[in-house]
Design goal:
alpha+beta, six-stranded mixed sheet, two-stranded antiparallel sheet, 3 helices, 21% helix, 33% strand, globular
Length: 126
């Protein structure tokens, strides 16, 4: 059994529950505190390959560089229904793609402008 305030892979959590466990804003996809991104909330309609690829639309977004540089792992949640986000586990950044070819491929798949394709890998660390 998981310790209190520790999410379980496969379980659904509301943004409020996520905030109680990890901190941060309830509405943001990458809430921050003290210069660190706390978690990632991914919508499959914007990120069809979530949790392994994040199709980030906003250009020049400081959070992308923070996610890439802060080290360690991030808890990742994927939206399954209103107020129900599936905990996918802890992930680390493998690569942030900015090449035009990759962005175009991701745009076709995601259906929106992609400025960065953040490639994540599951961490074996909990």
């Amino acid at each position: 059994m998981a310790p209190p305030n520790t999410p379980v892979i496969g379980n659904l959590y509301s943004p409020k529950e996520q905030s109680d466990m990890h901190g941060g804003n309830l509405q943001q996809c990458a809430p921050m505190k003290e210069g660190r991104v706390l978690l990632l909330r991914l919508r499959p309609d914007h990120n069809p390959d979530a949790p392994y690829i994040v199709d980030w639309g906003l250009p020049n977004d400081e959070r992308v560089q923070l996610i890439a540089d802060q080290g360690g792992t991030l808890p990742v949640y994927v939206r399954r229904r209103a107020n129900g986000w599936e905990y996918m586990g802890q992930f680390r950044v493998a690569h942030v793609a900015t090449e035009a070819t990759t962005r175009r491929e991701r745009e076709v798949k995601a259906g929106h402008i992609v400025s960065y394709a953040i490639h994540l890998e599951r961490s074996c660390l909990v």
